[in-house]
Structures are given as C-alpha cells and as structure tokens.
Design a protein that fits this description.
mainly alpha; Arc Repressor Mutant, subunit A; Tetracycline Repressor, domain 2; 2 domains
Length: 194
C-alpha cells in the first residue's frame, strides 16, 4: 500500500510541476528535465507514468478540466430553471477560477494554444456537457440565444479568464459586487431579449 501511495505521490508531483512550469514558462520552454527536477524525481521516472511530454500535458489537462467541471457542477441539478442553473454554474466557475488560480491559468493556456491534442480537447469538452445541455434546453425554451456553444462560451464564460489574469497581475481586485456585475453581463450576453 505504501508503495502505491508513493507512486501516486510521484505522479501528482509531476502533474503539479507541469502546471507550475507551463504557467510560468509556457509549454515549449518547459523541458521534461525541469519537470522532473521540480517534482524531485529522476527524468526516467516520468516515463513510468507518461509516454512523453505531450502525453503528460494532455493527461494533466484532462485531470484539471475534470477537477474544474466537477467543482462547477457539484451543486447543479438538471431540474433547475435555465437562468438559475446558469447562474449557479457560472458563479461556481468564477469561484474555481479565482480560488484555484494556478489550475485555471493552466486551462486557459491550454485552451488558447495548440499544445493539447484534439482527442484530449474532445475529452475536456465532454466534461462541460451539463452546461451544454442547459444551453440546449435554454435555446429550446427561447431563453438562450440560438448561437453556437463556442460563441456562448466565448461571451459568457471566457471573460472570467481575463478577470482572473487581471486579478493575478494585481491590476484589478474582484469583490462580490464585481462578481455580480460580471455574472449579469454574462447572462445578458446570451439571454434572448424579450
């Protein structure tokens, strides 16, 4: 059992080091040797858990995406109204991005560069299914604009990454009223105006 835990700890250390180094240096300036050094394992150890750097980054992306979406949907129930459901999910996403800044930064980097392969992206998108289903229901009920899910995500969710990065840089400190204003702007951007 102790051996299994040690193995899990090593793998977790590699994932943590990958997130930190990619956030600080970018994907291309993060060699496997640096990841191993930061994780305090030999470079050869990486290959016990991952095929190569691409596999390490892809698996890290999928794990972090799962953590993010599990948090986002933890208290969501499918029978909620579209607006209530969206507000709950949006605010939990905001909470995650502001509290788990390193993980959210890593996802933002992955989403905005070609460093993740397409199968891993598709796997990551699957984790967003409850939000996509909610939007589909909203479109059917005439509450959500009949736009592509990519456009809805770009206008309603992606601005949170900008706010998170701005806060991390110290340029803007979000408080409760800012979160409320940002949520309202997000909802206004995707709801059908009646």
């Amino acid at each position: 059992m102790a051996k299994l835990q040690k193995s899990i700890d090593k793998r977790n250390a590699l994932v943590k080091a990958t997130i930190e180094l990619v956030n600080n240096n970018g994907f291309h300036a993060t060699p496997m040797s640096k990841i191993a050094k930061m994780a305090k394992v030999s470079p050869a150890t990486i290959y016990l858990y991952f095929e190569n750097k691409q596999d390490l980054v892809n698996q890290t992306y999928i794990e972090v995406k799962a953590e993010y979406t599990n948090y986002a949907f933890a208290t969501y129930e499918e029978n909620m109204s579209v607006e209530d459901g969206f507000e709950l999910i949006w605010k939990r996403i905001a909470d995650f991005k502001l509290k788990e800044c390193e993980h959210a930064m890593f996802l933002a980097q992955c989403d905005n560069t070609p460093m993740i392969d397409e199968p891993s992206r598709i796997e990551g998108i699957k984790h967003l299914q409850p939000l996509l289903d909610l939007w589909q229901r909203g479109k059917k009920e005439g509450l959500v604009k009949p736009l592509s899910d990519f456009i809805l995500y770009a206008y309603a969710i992606n601005p949170l990454s900008f706010l998170m990065i701005t806060q991390k840089r110290g340029a803007f400190q979000l408080n409760e009223s800012h979160i409320e204003e940002a949520y309202q702007a997000a909802w206004d951007s995707i709801k059908v105006n009646k």
